[in-house]
Amino acid sequence: MQKAAPPSLPARMTRFNLRELEVLRALVETGKTTAAAQRLGLSQPAVSRSLGQLEAQLGRQLFLREGGRLVANEEALSIAEELGPVFATLARIENRSEQTERSHSGNLRVAAPPTIGHRFMPRRVARFTRENPDLEVVFDVIASDMLVTSVAEGNVDVGITDTVAAHEGVRSETLLATHAICIMPSGHPLAEKSVIEPQDLEGEPFIALTRRHSGRAAIDRALQRAGARPKIVIETATTVSAAEFVREGLGVALMNPFPIVHQLGGSVEARPFRPEIPYRTSFITPTGRPPSAAAAAFMAMVRESLDPTPYPSADQRSVTD
């Protein structure tokens, strides 16, 4: 019997060059061709040309032009996020010549805001310190606004934050994308629903984040657009304390599931919230210099620690702690 011929490949396969992908990531993170050009050391026309070539190869638009800014659509955001591990690998290759055989030396300054700093970072920092005994690691926990400033001024080598770092002195690299969840005490009537919507929170005792918290504004907008008015019983500065107040039965709360969703315990339940409120946790590093070999290795290690299994009540990403 004659074997069937294997399916033929397309005569022309779409190929992207590294520069086009670098341009995509820079535009997603900056929103402007001028800023992307400055970051990559290119001219503005070169950035626009690379974007045009990429969109032409894909056969679809990746950005909307609004008021002088480029607004990434969902496909552009998804592509940029998937490129993270690729560029992390390239960074490790580029820095390999600077590394010792087994470990790094010198110093590394790492910082994060309280919830990430206390609930996610310690094990990663401890692991990296053990793997690099000749490296002096300084780990700081500071407020998000101070963190961005410290990175921009070069006082911190690597920051991790879920705040949008709109500062020319820092570059951002997405680590994780999530969406808001609603948490409630175990046995709460809302736990019977598979998805929580704004109208479900009308008049509901509510634990709110303080107005200076980076996540408060987006939550307020989602509730106001739906005309939902929960009853705020307490405002608090961190998602960790909000979760504890929920555990105490004071009310329900909306929050970023990263990094505490796996640490809520059996007395608190979580449900996805719709419409989606997106969060993006990113590495931030100073724009004035490339990340050191130790900084690049640390970011790669943190990224590799993310669990590929689905992230509960979020967008199919997870962490193990």
Which key features would you list for this structure?
D-Maltodextrin-Binding Protein, domain 2; alpha/beta; 3 domains; Arc Repressor Mutant, subunit A; five-stranded mixed sheet; 10 helices; 321 residues
Description:
This protein is α/β, with parallel strands linked by helices. The protein folds into 3 domains: 18-72, Arc Repressor Mutant, subunit A (Orthogonal Bundle); 101-174 and 281-309, Periplasmic binding protein-like II (D-Maltodextrin-Binding Protein, domain 2); 181-275, D-Maltodextrin-Binding Protein, domain 2. Helices cover 36% and strands 23% of the residues. The protein is built from 10 helices and 14 strands. It has helices at 18-30, 33-40, 44-58, 74-95, 114-119, 121-131, 144-152, 216-225, 239-247, 293-304, and strands at residues 63-66, 69-72, 106-112, 135-141, 158-161, 170-179, 181-185, 205-209, 231-236, 252-255, 268-272, 278-286, 306-307, 318-319. It has a 5-stranded mixed beta sheet with strand order 4-3-5-12-6, with helices on both faces. Strands 9-8-10-7-11 form a 5-stranded mixed beta sheet, covered by helices on one side. A two-stranded antiparallel ribbon has the order 1-2. α8 links the parallel β8 (205-209) and β9 (231-236). α1 (18-30) crosses α3 (44-58), α1 packs across α4 (74-95) and α2 (33-40) packs across α3 (44-58). The protein is globular, with a radius of gyration of 22 Å. It starts with 17 loop residues before the first helix and ends with a strand. Residues 1-13, 97-101 and 308-321 have low confidence and may be disordered.
